[in-house]
Fold this protein.
Amino acid sequence: MDRVSHPVSKALAAVGDPSQLLPAREQMAFTLGFHIILVPFGVALTALMLIAHYRGLRHGDGDALRLARRWSKVAAVLFAVGAITGTVLSFELGILWPGLMGDYGAAFGMPFAVEGLFFFLEAIFVSIYLYGWNRLPPWAHFWTGVPVVLASLGGAAAVIAANSWMNQPGGITLRDGHVTAVRPLRVFFNGAFWYETVHMLLAAYIVAGFTVAGVYAAGMLKGRRDRHHRLGFLIGFLVAAAAIPVQIFVGDTVARQVFQDEPAKFAAIELLPATGDHVPENLGGFLVDGKVRYGLPVPDMASILAGFTPSTEIKGLEAIPAEVRPTDRSVTIVHLAFDVMVGTTFLMFGLVLWFAWLWWRGRTMPTNRWFLRGAAVSGLVAVVCLESGWVVTEVGRQPWTVVGLLLTRQAVTTRGNLWPLFGATVALYAAVGIGAVLVLRGMARHWRTAGDETVYVPYGPEQPFAASGTAGEER
Amino acid sequence: MNLSDVVALVMFVGVVAYALFGGADFGAGFWDLTAGGAERGKNPRHLVDLSIGPVWEANHTWLIYCLVMLWSGFPTAFAAITTTLYLPLVLAALGIVLRGAGFAFRKVSVRTPQQRLNGTLFAASSVLTPYCFGSIAGGIASGRVPSGGNGDAVTSWLNPTSVLGGILAVVSCAYLAAFYLATAAHRLDDAGLERYFRHRALLAGAVAGVVSIAGIFVLRTDAPRLFHQLSHRGLPLMALAALCGIVGMAGARLGRRAGRREIAALAIAAVVVGWGVAQYPFLLGTHLRIHEAAAPDTTLAVLLGVACVAALIILPSLILLFRLSGQGRLRART
């Protein structure tokens, strides 16, 4: 390959940004942002489903079993959509970012091989589990769901290994810009692996939990207060409620790790132009011409959060060489996204406290309308939180694709005109998204009016043949 | 044979598996597309749903397997392919989205117009996607992807060998699927539907034969090196493919059931393996050797490890799934 991407100085000789950079980044952000919403349902909805399933079998609870069965069908539809958007991403890695794949595929690509393994396992057992309802012995059927949950955790961890490696690359030997040796364990278990993984998995449980709870809260607002709705609400809500405080603790740890290991990202998060101590925590605000505007500063707070004392020094954007310093706009995006992530997390935590208070007062499932309204939108809030978290880590890495090794403008393709492709992708994904929502709503309506047996899902069992000329009876 | 050859071989096993399992699913989509109006095509379409419903995601996963093996094990070749053949790759990705969404949504949608729209998307993209993959294979095999990438965006896949590859891929998928579906119909004791797909197997086999014979002349002028290798080193495999094709069609004509799916699969596998054998030891055309494109040995070792784990864990699970769905063991217990 004639592409020489290392050392950095050589790359910096390249003037300006290629015209493909903006559309490629928009395309990647859009498709990744779409896909990431589906991930929690593969990772955590399947776990909620097994919780309900376990309860149903253990206590002979028909409501719980029905919930498990319905959730498995919802998970199947979302799994199908997630599988196709995930496949598109693997095409895009090559089509949009040949520099990344060509130069660092030997390291960066490796975790995806492991992910592929988990995905394969998941796809197989999702089918078996969906077919198993009323067909396999009850507990054997329950156990066929366990590989689905475990494989989804493993798969997510493997993808995050690749992503965290881009933030804190290591485990490779470079010669003339080529990877000549790889230390796989160091690539997988890179500096950012554990905290990114734990942070994301918790986020997945929060998103799936609140989304499920939100659906039943909305049902309760419409007057459906039966046990089915209360149980569905409680399983989702309690899982998310348990994850939120842990997430606040983990998120705080992650931020301190980023402070230590990724000072450029941390400077952007804190909207900090110059290195210093007694750094205030800016709530909101923009960076304009290298200066902070309109923020609400809380004195000394950033320093205290980063190092527990006001005298903690935090590196500012100034400390980054001018050629690789992020633009004001990306710094502002990272900072605001961080604020949104933290703000929405505390909103959700507030909802959990409200629930606890209502429960403590009433000793039963709260039916306060304002609480239910809050719960009904909590899934959306969780999705906003998840998206903003990914914006922090992805935009926070700019202008690097692999920090210190590969600039985004070196990774991007120069082929074709990407804007039409981007437009077509948005239209296509909008259609798929709307299709998925319509299908899920149709399923819910069907369940209410016609019962459970007549809803068919992508991997699930079929309806028997219609009685007609050539058709045989299914036995 | 060094480590990179072994990894290339393991990757190629995925290519063959995708051609057979993914191929049968694509072919089912082809027959879905050509099944006629809503009423006439109802039963064939239903059989397509029945037979690929539980396995289509697992079959699709072979593609992911091939991609990750290629980009981790042979990153420079992957970058060269994606910067050259990006147009058919984008079209294939489009096909995969429409196909997956169409198939998944058709099963859940209740109204006929919705089903028709989703079904058409599923079926049309079942033709588009294998065509693109076939033309990509043709582009690679005929040496139109330069080692450094950035080859001609248009002629790299709109050329005689690629067109041949694309058409052959679509026809092979249809051929394979017709045999699979005939067997599925037999399992349901539906003699009418079995006859229906047997006729289509014969038809697809005849078309495949004609395309293959025409292909001899195309390859001789357009990709002489590939033609030479296919007609020398690859000759036994080509002969095997032809033999299986003839035996399979004779079987279909006479209504023989035993082993018909296996023989059809063997014919397709022989063609795909023939491509691999003809291309060895090159990954791209005749200019990039497998070992030149390979990642460092540690990466290759990890990939080999992943493949071994896959063989230990995935294969038994996959066999379980195929047995459960194929033999109808998961039908309702009374």
About this structure: The CA atoms of residues 277 and 311 of chain A lie 5 Å apart. Strands of chain A lie at 172-175, 178-182, 281-283, 286-288, 291-293, 296-298, 400-402, 406-407.
